[in-house]
Each structure stands twice: as C-alpha cells, then as structure tokens.
Predict the 3D structure of the following.
Amino acid sequence: MSDGRRTRTQVCIIGSGPAGLLLGQLLHRAGVDAVILERRSKQYVLGRIRAGVLERTTVDLLERAGCAGRAHSEGLIHAGVNLAFDGSLHRLDLAAGSGGKTVLVYGQTEVTRDLMAAREAEGLITHYAAEDVEPQDFDGARPFVTFTEGGVRRRIDCDVIAGCDGYHGVSRASVPPDAIRTFQRDYPFGWMGLLADAPPVEEELIYAAHAHGFALCSMRSPTRSRYYVQCPVEDRVEDWPDDRFWDELRRRLPEDVARRVETAPSIEKSIAPLRSFVAEPLRFGRLFLCGDAAHIVPPTGAKGLNLAASDVHYLVEALSGFFLEGDAEALDRYSTRALARVWKAERFSWWFTSLMHRFPEDGAFDRRIRRAELDYLVGSEAAAAAFSENYVGLPF
Ligand code: APR
Ligand code: PHB
C-alpha cells in the first residue's frame, strides 16, 4: 500500500457516537493521538434522536473535554422527577435523596453536535462514510484497522483499537465467539417516541404507569417536548398517526395532567425496542469495547448515554496509564472497573422498566405487587433515596 493509504495513530476509534467522540476528545486532551472511523455520514449521525438526561458525572466529563458550554447554557437542571399512577402525580426529590445532586436535561443529539464541533475545531481526523471497517490482529501488539473510503482500501496501524460502534457494530462481532460471554433480556414491548415543538406538560419529567401501558413526558427545551408511549414491539411508525399518539398519551396520564398536554405536529417519530444486554469481558488483547458496543439498557431511567460516558472515563484512565506512564496493567483494569458500574446501571434500568411497564403475562397479583412498590417508593424516604442515587448516577 502507498503511504496515503496506510497511516498510523495510537488509538483507532471505531464509531463516532457519543462514546467514540468523547473518548477522542479526552484522549486528545491527555496527549494521546486518535483517529475515528464512522460508517455513516455526519448528517446521519446528527439526525438520530435519543435520550436526553445527563448525570452530573457525564457533565463533568464533557467539561473535562472542553465541550460543556452549550450544555450549561441551554440544558435544564432538574432536581426532581414525577411518577404518575392511579390517577395522581407524585414528585420524587432527587436532590434531597442524593445529597444535593441533580441531572441536566440536554439532548444526546446536542451532545454529539458539541463533541463533533470541538473535534473539528481542533483539526482532529474523522473518516465518515468509512465502509467495511475491519479490526485486525488485535490479539498481538500491532493491531490495525482496514476500511474503504471513496472506493479505496485503506489501513490504519495503531497500538489500540477502541470499539465504540454501538450494538450492531463490527467490533464485538470480530471477537472469537469462545472469548466472549453475553447476557441478554428482550422485553415484549417497545417505545413509540414523538418530538414536537410544544411546551412540556410539566417542568420535570413524568414517568407514568397505567393499565394501558407506560408513558413518559420528557423535553428538550422549554418549547420542545419529547413524549413516549409503550407499544407492541411489532408496531410500525405508520401505525401511530399523531392523533392516535396524543390520545394514547393523555389516556395514560392523570386527568388534570392530560388536560394540560399541548399538542403540535410531530417533528420526528420513531419506535425503539427495549433490551438489556451485557458482553463480558470488555477487553480482547488490544481491542476494547465501550458504550453500546458492550451493553444496552432499556431507556427507562436514561442510562444509555451515561453508561457510555462512564466506560469512556475508565478507558481514558487505562489508556493514559498505558501511553503516558507505560503501565500495561492499567489496560487490564478497564474491563472489571467498567463492568462493575455497568451491572449496577443494568440492574436499575431493568428494575425501573419492570416496575413501570405492562407485561403481556401480567396477572392480578403482579399488578398489586407493582402498585405496592410504587406506593412504597413515593411513601418511603429510604426507597426514594435509593431511587435518587441511582437516577442521578452512582459515583465512579
Ligand atoms: N464501522 C464504523 N462505524 C460504525 C460501524 C462500523 N461497522 N457500526 C456502527 N458504527 C457507528 C454508528 O453509525 C454510530 O455512529 O458507531 C456509532 C455508535 O454510536 P451509538 O450507537 O450512539 O453508540 P455509543 O457511542 O456507544 O453511545 C451510546 O447512544 O445508542 C445510544 O442509547 C445509546 O445513549 C446511548 C448512547
Ligand atoms: C428522553 O428525553 O428522550 C428520555 C428521558 C428520560 C428517559 C428516557 C428518554 O428515561
């Protein structure tokens, strides 16, 4: 291969979602070189609408990356969330239950935009529309990644490959099956989401449990709402004209709240399946899995992006130790440290999903137990504190 087709970097990052971009930015700040390969176009990546609740620890990482300016000026600080069930609304005081911590409501799409802008401003390299990306030879000390760009096959030699390419990415798929173990639960329903330029119905989020299924009232700004309703997993967006969505949302909220819902034409609608998934370990020689490539949580509780950020935190520590201090053992610690926090967030997301949704197999007993648990959660300081410390994010 001629020189232009073969280049070198310290860390080759696959995927420019929030995990890959945040990793790239923090490595750059630490003085470690990285190149990003992304299968899609920049516009495509920025068109994806995802969750929008940032833990304090995630905001701290954005600050360290020099990318928190807009999150601070445009994000909304929330010190509580509401649970709705049996026709009434109950506020959980997150700050009181977590020693004063809050969350920041700021869309993942905006986080991605801010990270991309910072990367471009620093002149760091991202190859968009990179086809047939293949991580290679990561069981040895000289891994490389090949990909096709503009019809030309290229090669990047590196010391480490960071697989930040999401659940359907090539990194996890490249690991020999006998070297990896996966744990999975698929839920028998999805979330139908709608984005609209209408003021949010409440200042803080509402998580609603109802006989017809779960509903969530969230937001992106004081004038833009994000709503979800639980739906059958086989439903398609075409099954959900706006009117049907608004009717179903209102039905699942307490009456006085439902009356206040302001509607507007949808700007975006999408259906997401709900899944819990963890791969172990997160390290295979010189290949490291990070973010959705390694684990998926159901969106109840908004842990997906925050978990990706916490993996990045541990991976930056490991890679800084390796590249800056020559500490090869730092690489060994990544998987165990990241997974310990991953499993706790998996537990919380699974628990909150199980509590709030209607399952096809539910009987009268399950419904009573769930109502008792909701009553307990809003009636016990200890239960509310346990909820709050998980919702605002466990410490690293
Ligand atoms: N080659 C290159 N890039 C790829 C490949 C591939 N074979 N496969 C996937 N990608 C890219 C995707 O196009 C995407 O831009 O990797 C990126 C992965 O980004 P995300 O899916 O956003 O995953 P992650 O960065 O780990 O962020 C986790 O995003 O998916 C949400 O709910 C999730 O909030 C969580 C967060
Ligand atoms: C969102 O705003 O999209 C959102 C908020 C909270 C969740 C999930 C999604 O738990």
About this structure: Residues 329-356 form the longest helix (28 residues).
